[in-house]
Amino acid sequence: MTETAAIELQLKEACQLTDAAWSALVEREAGKWRVAAHYHLGKKSHSALVKFLEDTEVDAWLSGALSGGGSRSVSLPSSSALRVERLYAFPVAGASQVVLAGAGLLSLPAQRIWRLAVSGIRAESAHPESPASSVAASLLMPDLNSESPYDLPRALHRALDAFTRLVPVQGAWFAIRRADSLEIRAQWNAPALADLVLQIDAHSLLRRMNRNLTPVAVQRGDALWAQIPHKGLKAGVKAWICVPLVIGQRLIGAVGMWRSSNFKAEEWNRLVDLATQIAPALETLITFAEMAGHLRRLAMLNDFALTVATGRSLDQIARRLFALLSRAFGTELIVLDLFSSEDVIQEYRMEAGNLVSILRSAEGHPISRLLTSDQMMRLSDMGAESALPLYNGALSGIYAPLRLRGQRIGALSVESRLRNAFSPYDESLLVVLASHLASLADYTRVREEAEGRARNLGVIHEVVQQIVGLTDSRQVAEATASLLARYFSYELTTVFIADESGSLTISGFGGVSPNVVRRAMKSVTYPVRGGITGYVFESGRGVLVNDVLQDERYTPIKGWQAGSEMCVPIRDASKVLGVINVESSSRNAFTHNDYIALESLAGILAAVITSANQYQRLQETIYQLRETEMELNARMEAQRLAENRLVQAAKLAAVGEMAAGIAHELNNPLTSVTGFAELVMNDLPDDSPLRADLDLVIREARRARDVVRRLLDFARQSESARANASLNKVVEDVVALTRHLIHTNGVELRLHLQEDLPWVSMDENQMKQVLLNLVHNALQAMPGGGQLEIRTAAVPKVGREGVIVSVRDSGVGIPPEIQTRIFEPFFTTKANRGGTGLGLSVTYGIVSAHGGEIELISQPGAGSTFTVWLPKG
To answer: N or C: less crowded end of the chain, CB within 10 Å?
Structure first.
């Protein structure tokens, strides 16, 4: 049976005897806990336990169990993925191992069973017949020929585990020697000591150990207790020991250990024996690590030559350099500063994973002290008054100057948020890279300047192409200033164009700094007078000023200090149309080639502005013609509507006269027929067969009389009695009359009446007739039921106050081809249902007589809306 199988069997038996849910043997290796064996631990619980062991508080809890040597337990929340109430920890004596048992509340006998099982696990895993030092040394040696033979950090943790297994302690560290210091590379139960560097000469005990190459041990109360490195030690510590690792007569490392009881002579000898056996393996590992580091540095120089040196621009070089340094040093806290002029620094740095480039003043820059020195500097060398580090939170850094032919070019800075992150080899490598980078950056800058001048004419062509089609002077100014700033990266660009009065009042602004542009826009007063711009506009001669402080014509802008200025006129023959002005914060920023390029652009811009002015005048003429055309069309439409109303009124008048005559001619015969028929009806007996015929005569005569009455209404035979009244009341009366009819037709009525509706002058009875006609038409348009909506509101029309009442139905709608005829007398689409074609004609006549209007909006299948508008008063 293998050792793991034997351990799992013991865990199983202990779980069954104590009713524990599961158990596991966990081991601390290389500063981390791993599950070495387990019983009844499902896949989900296993993953949860692995995650649980990664917690720093859990690490401290388990480490405390190891150092104290006693069992301990902790309650777990009900939501824990470990699915138990409590977790018990039983340390394995003499090893960095702990048995975990997940269960409810274990009784004292059950806990004794677990301690017995743990002692059995210790017996299975130990080899009493082997010397203790050999056992401990074997824990390190396999790493040299296994999956990671050159992994120095892992080997150091394995070595430290060997020491802590050999002798029980509360905490320990393992350090290797670098020059005159001991760098702590591994720690156990002492996280505060991670990456700590102990200067040998600064500690008398370390000095003595380095001189004598013998272990040193100090107990609390000794005079030398104050000389030990106290960082990471707890209050209960009573003994501290430091064992050197020696090759020949040379110290290569040391192991520091402490605990709450004194170290015995036997333990002392075992630690010394283990250190003697581990030292050769450690020396080999350090040699391999240094060789690997040397190869990495050579590879980095090769990568520099192959990738960085082939960059075509400073931005590309910086991006490739940063990627190379980040990969080599394990940090993105990198800054490259290059002088773009005597007082301005072009700075490249990483921000949120992106490379950014900014211009900064050299005065007060954090690296200003470095630029005056020829030597590489460390962050630890800087005094408290220094502005370094360049990144917040950086704890170490190296800064190498870039110099070429005795001139300062810039600086390369690499920082880290880890202490002592850079070795002397890293510093030497950065100095070599900086020396190569200085010549490369200078050459690239010169080439970029030459290529930039060669591109000027091409860029001018691009600018011109984008402004040629513009037809507004203000757009020309704004686009030109913006394009100049974009293509030439000018800090401040201004284009002034004269208006019709000959004053500079139209301007466009651009620049690489939005704050400078905003300040410039606020500071300009119109019309523009004085200054270099005013001088060029008035004289028509361009100027190039290398130092504006030496030119009395310069007018400063609040919040912006120019160093040099270039200004050229925009001329059309002898007339100056405007001015192009460019400013920079640096002196001598512009060359004669820049001035010639700006003059070329100004010559083309003059033609564009002239064309734009002519186009604007043409557009104004076209606009006036269009306004006149629209006014004529409006008048013609108004005249057409008036003529249509007159024709309709004439039709109604003619039909009215005819209707009045017909009504009078028919009314008397119909009265006689009805009267005599009723007299005969009264004389006939009830069972006479003639009564049915006479009843039909009477009904038809009365129907004919109703038609005659409608003709009389249409012919305006009745007097109109108008008074100020509420249209809402008319609606309410009509709704009361028709509510039953609306309900029986399966129609849903919706009323929306404006509460504060103004009164209008009207004949209430006639308006009721209008609304009744509209409601009846709506009901007839919804034979299968639907929705009827009546709405009132105050609506002005053509400058007159008035009110509306609208009747909207969800019926069949009215086809477009007959919508123009619905108000004609005797026109009806309901002849087969007794329609006479007089309802809407009468409605139209009543509304027109009141000085109002009636409109129709209808769509087949979507219903119709009739809107009556009546003037107020």
So the answer is: N
Pairing of strands 802-809, 864-871: antiparallel
Q: What share of the chain is helix, strand, coil (3-state, %, to 5)?
A: 50, 25, 30
Distance (Å, rounded) from C-alpha 122 to C-alpha 98? 10
pLDDT (0 to 100) of residue 115: 85
Q: Which pLDDT value is given to residue 464?
A: 66
SS (H, E, C) 811-838: CCCCCHHHHHHCCCCCCCCCHHHCCCCC
Residue 542 β-bridge partners: none
Whole-angstrom distance, CA of residue 668 vs CA of residue 689 = 28
State the Cα–Cα distance between residues 265 and 241, nearest whole angstrom. 12
Give the pLDDT score at 139: 39
**In 222-359, alpha helices (H):** 265-306, 314-329
792: phi > 0 → left, psi -120 to 50 → alpha, else beta; which? beta
Which residues of the chain, if any, have pLDDT below 50?
123-149, 717, 831, 834-835
**Dihedral sign, Cα of residue 472, residue 474, residue 475, residue 479:** positive
Q: What is the pTM of this model?
A: 0.38
DSSP string, 11-35: HHHHHHHHT-SEEEEEEEETTEEEE
Whole-Å CA distances, 842 to 422, 764, 768: 103, 15, 12
**What would the two tokens of residue 436 be?**
């190569």
What average pLDDT does the structure give for the chain? 80
CA distance 444 to 423: 31
DSSP 8-state code for residue 720: P
Q: Is residue 508 within 8 Å of 472, Cβ to Cβ?
A: no
Give me the half-sphere count of Cα atoms (radius 13 Å) on the Cβ side of residue 330.
9
Residue type, 815: P
Crossing angle for the helix pair 839-849 and 592-683, to the nearest 10 degrees: 120
Structure tokens at 826: 């005797």
Tokens 């004949």 correspond to: 763
CA distance 156 to 56: 21
The 3-state DSSP class for residue 570 equals strand
Nearest of 669, 660, 662, 661 to residue 718 by alpha carbon = 660
What is the C-alpha to C-alpha distance for residues 300 and 332, in angstroms, rounded to an integer? 16
What pLDDT was estimated at residue 218?
92
Q: Look up residue 579 and give its two tokens.
A: 């001015």
H or E element that contains 102? strand 97-103
Between the CA of residue 270 and those of 136, 166, 274, what are the distances in Å?
9, 8, 6
Q: Is the peptide bond before 825 cis (omega within 30 degrees of 0)?
A: no
Distance, CA of 865 to CA of 859 (rounded, Å): 9
Q: Supply the pLDDT for residue 59.
A: 85
Sign of CA dihedral 627, 633, 637, 638: positive
Please check whether residue 223 is in contact with residue 178, taking contact to mean a CB–CB distance below 8 angstroms.
no
3 state SS of 170: coil
CA distance 89 to 76: 13
Residue tagged 């009900």 (tokens): 78
Per-residue pLDDT at 281? 80
CA distance 689 to 109: 122
CB 347 within 8 A of CB 358: yes
CA atoms within 13 A on the CB side of 744: 7
Write out the DSSP string of 391-428. Answer: STT--EEEEEEEEETTEEEEEEEEEESSTT---HHHHH
